[in-house]
Amino acid sequence: MKTIFEYIPIKSHGLVNQYLVDYPVKFKISNKRYSKHGDYRYYSNGDEQISVNSNLNPYRFLITLIHEISHLVAFKNYGRNINPHGKEWKETFKSLMNPFLKVDIFPENLLKTLKKHFVNPKSSTDSDFELSLALNRYNKKQGLYLYEISLGKIFKIYNGKVFRKVLVRRKKIECVELNSKKRYLFSPLAEVELLEN
After folding, report:
1. Global pTM?
2. Per CATH, is 4-136 categorized as 3.30.2010?
């Protein structure tokens, strides 16, 4: 069974291990989830668990791991009534992530984008188009993203539903599901399978 250290850059192992000693938590490596890269859970019996998706590249896995550890630390330091991605979490995330922002852990071109992101980190790396695009370059399997296909094209997503790309908005792409005719907003970085049309 793989440990988390097999999923993250080698030069990050020492500091990650220290965080896990300082903030003990159950850890789970999950199968790919389309709705999130990871999560932090607090159970009524006091147990805490962090899960991170197994399909992430080492850089996204590390960022997601520290993102979730930051939830644990922020709740411990500020109490459970804080906004999950509010100022307390942001400051905690920045503080815990800062020691990793070095060229021996992240490639230089990615590091530049990461430093920009961590001026004011968002609730998800997927909310930062530039960072998400930079991270996706390190995926083993390069997929096709919605922003790459032309308007009017028909595509399929992971659950088999088929859509037509109809409108590019400022941050989202509007698409129509062909069966129901309902309109949905997608991230430009949604992975799609282009169908013949």
Report:
1. 0.85
2. yes
